[in-house]
Amino acid sequence: MFDVAGFELVVRSRRVVTAGGERALAVAVRDGKIAALHAYDDVTADVPDARQVVDLGDVALLPGLVDTHVHVNEPGRTHWEGFATATRAAAAGGITTIVDMPLNSLPPTVDVAALETKRRAAQGKCHVDVGFWGGAIPGNLTDLRPLHDAGVFGVKCFLSPSGVEEFPALDRAGLRDALAEVGSFDGLLIAHAEDPALLRDPPGPKYADFLGSRPQEAERRAVEQVIESAAATGARAHIVHVSAAACLEPLRQARRDGVRITAETCPHYLTLTAEEVAGPAYKCCPPIREAANRDALWEALAEGVLIGVVSDHSPSTPDLKVPDFAAAWGGISSLQLGLPAVWTEARSRGYGLREIARWMAEGPAALVGLPYKGVIDVGADADLVAFDADAEFTVDAAALHHRNLVTPYHGRTLTGVVRTTWLRGVPVDFLTPRGRFLVGS
């Protein structure tokens, strides 16, 4: 037995997911940090000295997930989503850290003044910890270093139209210049990689028309463009939401060549297929592709070519999700559902919770330089998730915390239920926002 008197919380589980795999442990929390890890049997649930001892038994204990790709849209398009609703949804889905994207809010986060406007809009509303990306657009090259110094985790650019006029894309020269500038202070540039020269207007309203209008080759060529510029400048670059298997070999080769480039994918590319698309709730850019393509993404994830799985939560109001795929808003709402969606597919493919923690917590945390997030280890933030890995539920969009209840997962039966989420050792109650702002180094 160990003395629990000095801890605010002790959580026991026979399935604590650590870097070493699943272990039977008691996780002891002091001052919001994981202060000690002890054997499961070293404490019992009826120890009177602890303020709180939680025995999960066979319910798994995961590190809080880290989602580095979330479009919160506040201020300016708060009717699409907002910090209060997005962070409640995140916590309900086992996510304890999000990093907000710079576009879709008004103003977009392309200078320090806009970053401060966004922080003011988020103040007092966040149920999980929140960081921010800046934006790289034509004409704001001199703003990139000040944004970095003000605490953004990196800057995002588009190589094709973003869908909102206030966040235009960079051309090839603009990308090279942005990477050179970011490289000068060892920052990070993240890129939406589709080559606009290979995109075209869909010839009709059906999903097949839309899918054909955004071919894999468009993604591959844009990824190769980022690789080329990253290699030339020595800067660190990251490809967001990879959907196309055609991108994987260029990424593999770049890694072999020592280029400082990483890439991610998203739950919808790993769990949904073009063959099953049933309506505009499935529309996103780049698009959901065929089942064989999905298999290749899973292989690349297991291999480490893709370093993480993040939501790309990109909501809109329901009226923008019109039946015409050419006209519908492109974005998927999945912030609350990413963990069970990925887990359902992962376990069917023979993966375990250790892989889930690596892909959805450790990998994204490492991308943005947060070593104290996404892990269950002494010294880390006590961000924890009680995850009933064997429980099933049917998704009801009306029960989600997202502001607008549109999701392609509605009606799906998924495996894995989040029972409790702790942020720095305190259960998230959805009434009292306790999230903090995080800053990059």
From TrEMBL:
The keyword Cell membrane does not apply. Gene3D superfamilies: Metal-dependent hydrolases. GO terms for biological process: allantoin catabolic process; purine nucleobase catabolic process. One of its GO terms (molecular function) is cobalt ion binding. SUPFAM superfamilies: Composite domain of metallo-dependent hydrolases, Metallo-dependent hydrolases. Its EC number is 3.5.2.5. Its cofactor is Zn(2+). GO terms for cellular component: cytoplasm. Residues 61-426 form the Amidohydrolase-related domain. Keywords: Hydrolase, Metal-binding, Purine metabolism, Zinc. Coiled coil: none annotated. InterPro entries: Allantoinase (IPR017593), Amidohydro-rel (IPR006680), DHOase/Allantoinase_Hydrolase (IPR050138), Metal-dep_hydrolase_composite (IPR011059), Metal_Hydrolase (IPR032466). It holds the Pfam family Amidohydro_1. Pathway: Nitrogen metabolism; (S)-allantoin degradation; allantoate from (S)-allantoin: step 1/1. NCBIfam families: allantoinase. Homotetramer. This is allantoinase.
